[in-house]
């Protein structure tokens, strides 16, 4: 439903009608807006809301390649390289945005349209290189095209390279700055270049309908259309929907979050077999939902299980082309929906799908507010170490360039390497004849590749499980990998164990090992008071508890009661029990004394740790130890 799809499967107009029908059934209608017309002047044009945000970001960090978007195709067959370059220039001449640069006039940024001949096709013959068909060699050259910075002032903001890698074998690499394009636009560009190339080969004129608008017309229309009278009611809806939204989805990471992200990234491929996809379709169809909603629900379930949160917020792109006159335009139209999913109550997966469906349809009914405006209006607590409102993205889209007609040259998509990451995690999927393919892009500031490989395996496993049993509850969904065994993670407090893998040794060994390298990093935080301990402080306190326990005769495989309320002191005591080689017995301090005594006796506990002010339970061979939390030290 919110996929950024390429024209053809189905058209944006068809998909928009489907959305309208779904919204009408729920009593929701999108408000009308005036028709988009041509600008009254041919001079510099204003920027759209989305463009303005990227312009400001570029001013703060000029040339950052995080906002480069790229695509690549493998071309099989005899290709006329010069004819291909002419085709590219024809399409660039057709779309003003592809020859646009950005200047500052009287303190405000504007779009300036240049000449089409500034965009050319770089041709490189790799057939004389060692191993011309080597994927690593091709990857390096594609990376050079996609990863090189753009200058918004100087342009051009489109670059293309044709790599000859064998007899009648080529690779086309294409890159554009996001300020002039989006995923849908990449599909338009590929399709129109193919039509122009085919027409040129046959000596025919390019048979494309004239564009009704240019992107600058849309930008001017948006500036005049998105008035307070139109946006205020929608913004109020978003304020209510996002009230109290978590500032961070606290997933386990391999590295502490830096104060300022580098935006460096990488990705891991994703594959879900066709049989599993069809099974998931069957489950979600019964709930009146789409494949997008089903995959998002599975992703949300996994994020909830790994973060320990029942309030999961995910961003998802929408094409932003609800009007037919925008379908054929290249430009930055995509908007971002903030999808907040409640997974409290340990619901069945089918119920999660229903909740995702409601959230998605509500978001679509209120999508006219640009994400940039939403962030500005809601003014969440700004933290440069993370993106506002959400840190994880999800997208389902069509595979690029899988059905182009190049007059005897067949095409297939080439995976474009991820070298940047705008978010902590971005799960990008697309449908193929073999099921679902895609990639999980991740910020290398936070995650190691091995952890993300494991995360992909867990996601595929979750999808496979819910595709067979849509009635499985969130808490019972399998998220462990083969050989990990059973691991129970308490909801609070959460020990940040790092990564998405499961430690093969004891928890005590893991935390002590973390303290050796991460002594000053935050290990645990009290969710109520906000008091936290570093790994070094946690281990010092726990070793003190372990020493006290050993002093009263507690040894390996003994049992120790922990009669404490949840908090930092509870974590210190629990870890101390483990470091002493013992097992802990949970005892609720709110239980009657008789029940506490019975639980300890039944478990054969040799000692019990209790807090100051809580009656110590002794007797029957159980030694009582009283601890006080001083705010920084847990004393016995």
Output the keywords.
636 residues; alpha/beta; Chloramphenicol Acetyltransferase; Rossmann fold; 5-stranded mixed sheet; 16 helices
The first-level CATH class name of the largest domain: Alpha Beta
Q: What is the overall silhouette?
A: elongated
The number of distinct helices, counting runs of at least 4 residues, comes to: 16
Helix content: 25-40%
What CATH architecture of the largest domain would you give?
A: 2-Layer Sandwich
Structural description of this entry:
- This protein is α/β, with parallel strands linked by helices and 636 residues long.
- The chain folds into three domains: 49-216, Chloramphenicol Acetyltransferase; 227-405 and 415-476, Chloramphenicol Acetyltransferase (2-Layer Sandwich); 514-635, Rossmann fold (3-Layer(aba) Sandwich).
- It is built from 16 helices and 20 strands.
- It has helices at residues 12-25, 49-60, 81-94, 135-147, 183-201, 215-225, 228-241, 274-285, 291-307, 349-365, 371-378, 449-468, 507-518, 535-551, 568-579, 593-603; strands spanning 68-76, 100-105, 108-113, 121-125, 158-166, 169-177, 265-273, 311-318, 335-342, 392-398, 410-413, 425-432, 435-443, 522-525, 532-534, 559-563, 583-586, 607-611, 623-629, 634-635.
- The strands form six sheets. A five-stranded mixed β-sheet has the order 4-5-6-1-11, sandwiched between helices. It has a five-stranded mixed β-sheet with strand order 17-16-18-19-20, with helices on both faces.
- Helix 9 (291-307) crosses helix 12 (449-468), helix 13 (507-518) crosses helix 14 (535-551) and helix 14 crosses helix 15 (568-579).
- The longest helix has 20 residues, at 449-468.
- The model is unreliable at 1-16 and 485-504 (pLDDT under 50).
